[in-house]
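Technical note accompanying the year-one report. For the benefit of new consortium partners, we illustrate the data format agreed upon in the data management plan: each record pairs a sequence with a structure-token string. No post-processing was applied to the example shown here.
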Amino acid sequence: KAAAHTYFAKELDELTLAEAAILAAIPQSPTRFDLVKNAEEVCTVTVAEGGECPPAKIQLVVPDTAEIVVRRDYVLDQMKTRSPLSGAKHTVDEYEKAKSEPVVLARQLGVRWLAPHFVWQVRRELASILCPDVTVDECRDIDTGGYRVTTTLDWKMQTTTEKWVFAAARAPNLSDTKTRLKNLKIPARDWGWLVNLRGKNLHNGAAAILDYRTGEILAYAGSASYTATGTKKFQPQWDVLSDGWRQPGSSIKPLNYAIGIEDRTMTAATMFMDVTTDFGGKFIPTQADKKERGPVRLRSALQFSLNIPSIKAGVMNGLDHFYKRSRDFGVAYIPGSVPVVSMGIGTLEVHPIDLLGAYGAIADGGQLMPRTTILKVTKADGTVIWPDTAVKRKPTKVISPQAAYIVTDILKGNTDPKVNPFWGEWAIYDNGVRRPAAYKTGTTNENRDVHAYGYLAPPKDPKAPALAVGVWMGNSNNDPNTDTLSLKSSAPLWSRILTEASKGMPIADFRQPKGLVTVAVDAITGLKPGPFSTRTVKELFIDGTEPTQSDDLRRTVDIDAASGLLWQDGCVGPRKTVGALDFSQVEAAFPRWQKADNAWVRRAAKGPGVGGGLKGTATQYFYGDGFYPFGRTWGGIFAPSGTCPLAPPPSVAPCANPFGLFCPSPPVEPGPGGSPKPGRTPKP
């Protein structure tokens, strides 16, 4: 009777045959077959793109394909011949007709949950504690056991997260955006980037806050709003963080490089060629701005999110090894995935919450702490059944503290405007003081997914939370957005959540572990500075991995100082020895890469802005857009392509005798018809 009231707003004797059958079908699995849980919001009127359906025009409809509807039809089939209570009350045709009746629910006025997406995660974890051998839908003890559950949720951080996710993902798509932002108490200084998201086809967002030292989830918003009216692009009850499979894009790059640094096959100074390359299978990726920056060190490649170096790093790691080791960070890939070349730029779908955990592992010195939403579970009499005091939760070491710190130190530069003025725009501040923080963004193909993940340095107080924040934005149905990169969407969202969540906390900096050394290297090659190095930088290395080889990118070339061309015997001179760039063997172990490098050299020798290659990409000094930390150069000059002209043969010396004595006779010039023409006789 209660179910009839709740689901259909009817008395028992008012139910249709189909409604009675579906209620009879529910008790086999009350959680899995819950009608509200299985229902979808359907708008009965046409709504403009991006608009919201009027609440009065929304119906809750359970799809015909839902398990509970299939079971209803099974019950109706059984009732035809096995229903002693109904007897001959219904005909066979009535049973068949009942199976085609849509399941439309009455308007629900149930209890409003706080942090609803988080609650579902708590239920999922509680099922693993109470019923480890069955699914969450089959664990009846969750609803009937009378347990008291203490969760990890920080309500202040939860409201902060929900507010900012709604402001970024929903408010720009609704009428009177600025009024909604004002009602949310969003500072006016943030209205600009939020209003600019209007019309960008970004309709949903999700975010979470993690204490990476304990694994405790402090805030969790699986979509931009749980109770709002949904559309195809905005499905509010779908938990993107834990249930959605999303391409991580460039946010996978820190794991890729961390694996190579840990394996000692690369360092933060390793040089990659950022050159448009055919990686096989018609896979010819480019940077978003269609520029090729030539030689870049790993640190710069990661900080400025260059795509081609990360693809090359993945290949150098070994695709199978990269795939396996990234799973050690707690990242699960969509079932059926296999390692592919493009995984270096995040084309394999993952759960965003797993990626947040992976960043937390890097933040915590390479230790991955299991995530949890539950602190304690007690019986009604107060008996603690979880956690088990005999089994302590322990982290898993995935990389060394040294490798983790190097990656952190690189990503830390992304919140320092002096190091990275583009990503640094979204640094974390507290009362005008910049907090040390590390983060990385990710934008996927066609901008279908935009991410941002990062963390603060761990506080000195071991009981204080060490915060990591992860953000996703996009559309529930995977539609591409309109030319909106992460730096204009997910990055500011990440920054604002972490800024507000950490406000007032003591400011800490990242602490360097033992086992690292700082060495000066060539700013371009990352090797020991050579005689022709144009600039050096200080770089961090795991002790024993610092470069021992001198810079050999610049080979000795003799040029003619007057013409600037290659010198040869007989040039006017003077002869000058210079170090000319030689990229002819930098990636010789990969012939296809080297071929692309050689083509780039021919363009780069003409200077920046020269287009061509496989995708018409243009040469560009690192980084560009007015920011050239290592100068407007690729590290030196290219060898001249031509040879200087030889000096002309010496002319006849003038007569030194002013009276013409003993001077040689002047040459005789041919006259008309070939006859000799007497030369002029000089006068005394």
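Partners are asked to follow this layout when depositing records. The chain has 19 helices and 27 strands.
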